[in-house]
Amino acid sequence: MKVEYRRKTDKIPEELHTFKPEQRRKAFWVGLAIIVSVAVGAMLWVAWGVQERERQYVGTLQKRMELLASSQVQLVEALTQESRQQANRIIRAELFRLYAAEIDLIEDDVARIVAGPLPGQPTNDELTQLSAQLPMMQSLLIEFTRISGYISGRVVNRNGTVYIATDASTTPLRPDQAELVKKVLDTRADQFGPLRHTAHGLVMESYLPIYPPGASSKEARPVAVLVLAKAVSDRMNELSSGNRLIEKGESIRLVQQVAGGYEEIVPWLPGELRPIGAPLELDSGQRMRFAERSSLSAAQKVYSVGMPVPNMNWWIVAEADYNVAREGLRSEQRVLISMAALLILVFTITFGAVWAKLIGNQDRKLAHYFEAMAQRVENQRQLLDRVNGTIADFIGLKDLSGHYLYVNPAFARAVGHSAEELIGLNDEAIFGFDTARRLDYSDQQLLAGSDLVTFSETVYLQSRQHHLQFSKSPLHDADGKLTGIVSVIRDVTEMVETQRRQEQATQKTVEALVRAIELTDPYLAGHSRLMGTLAVEVAKALNASNLETATMETAANLAHIGKLFVDRNLLFKTDIYTAEEKQAMEQHVMHAAKVLHGIDFGLPVYEAVVQMNESPDGSGYPKGLKGPEIALTARVLGVVNSFCAMVQPRAYRGARPVEEALQILRESGTAYDQRVVAALAEVVHSALGEKLLARHAPAS
Fold this sequence. Notes:
Elements: H1 12-18, H2 21-91, H3 94-105, H4 111-115, H5 125-148, E1 152-157, E2 162-165, H6 175-187, E3 191-192, E4 196-198, E5 201-210, E6 224-231, H7 233-241, E7 250-258, E8 261-265, E9 273-276, E10 288-294, E11 301-309, E12 314-321, H8 322-325, H9 327-358, H10 366-390, E13 394-399, E14 404-407, H11 409-415, H12 419-422, H13 427-431, H14 433-447, E15 453-461, E16 464-476, E17 482-491, H15 493-520, H16 527-541, H17 546-558, H18 568-571, H19 579-586, H20 588-596, H21 605-611, H22 632-647, H23 658-667, H24 674-684, H25 687-695
Antiparallel strand pairs: 1-2, 1-6, 3-5, 4-5, 5-6, 7-8, 7-12, 8-9, 10-11, 11-12, 13-14, 13-17, 15-16, 16-17
């Protein structure tokens, strides 16, 4: 960029005498039309910019809130799954199932087994035997609840009568308990009752069916229902406040449906349950769609979204304070409005200056003309000073020796001195010796003939680190001679820090999803980390780019996210899959695609995960891609994933030796990229590879 001065004083007298009134009027209306057009255009641009940015912002916030709520739903499902797994130890015990089946077969009142035969009634050997076994069964249930951390446990027959209980008496069921018992018997599915506040804090009741020996839910109906009560105040508190993804102004709320409406679970408050006045705004899928609405606990405005917990009348509601969430958006709106106002002001001032020249009195003496021009220049200089005073960028002008001739107020405030104190100083005096040496290189480029030099630099200003973008250009006089250097410096520290926080948030999201994957399938614990580490080393051996290496590392952690949506019984099946089961298992790729679609990782993670199960010979899935149609990242992940799966144990087999796994990959021919297989073999036979495999070796 060149700044030049042109002398026009020689033409001034001629212009004064040749300008006509008709030209004045025409110029006035043309200039006014231009100003109106610019003003209208600026306002339309501001309106469009505000609407477009708000749409993008709200869309990003919606994805984040839905991901936050979904992760909490998975944690609640993990809690209920934990209860099921603990209860399986008692309801799958053959002795317990046999006793429940025998109780179900007797036609007499179950109360006679608990209380004994009535006086005068004939004794029944079968009833007598069952009554004699009752204390032992009760002891088994008491020992189970004590070891598993439950408060109480009861066994209810199909008539709704409690005949085994861990407390002193078999208290009859409450109406809501009887309804849930009936639902378990009808649906043959586990049920979980709403939380209740008791002396033990919040208590969750689990209702699980008991089947006859050797039978399952597909073969027979339940003969009894096991009712377990567990204190969960601490777990609920962790679910409400323990998510590290929550940012300023955001909160997670747990809501349950009860007979009287809805309650919020608030374990940190007295009573631990708080009624919600208005019902939840649920759609046909029992989801609370993302929208602006009032908070569940106050009248304040929030963005919120609600996700139902499967098989429970629970919802996870993620809320973001409306005002806090839109702070950044409001700042951008103010910048757009300021820019539009500045544009209109510049055009208005330009028109005023031109019009002032056009309406100059032709009879005015040349001296008066110069006096007016001097005043006009002074006004423009003051305006320029005021504009410079409001510009956030740092502007400085140096002479050829490197000493500053001018700095704007923003420059002076940034370095902690007044503008007058900085005049005459050089970069070394202002920024320090090391920084001055780096900045001097750009000055030398301009002195050598460059028109514009742009670069970024990290500088300490007033003992604080700042990320600055420099744009330097030469200043020439009217004869084209270089007289100085103009520097425009923009502080992008906030933008850099925002990008860093976004990268951290993305990393935390990936870590949360990895934890969810490992909770779903214990056999995948450590699999993703080993897979990611080996993939990075293989990428290095193949001389892959930094982008491809980073993509493999992130994609490895998310490669099995689709298995969150696959039936757990299918994941842990030890027999050979049927054709239908194999097809259902292969759907985990499409589940992963739906989860990752639209998430901006800054890397082609989506393509790597979706193509990971493709084979170079076209035998893979989901699309049957071949050879070069499959990205290098996906080919590497496919080989490393198969290797890690073979050297680690699974539900249907033990871990294979490393050499056997490599030999299987080599013998697979074109099913795997043999160049990648060779690179993997090189890595695992290295000292680093042996150390990695030893660290992730299964416990003997």
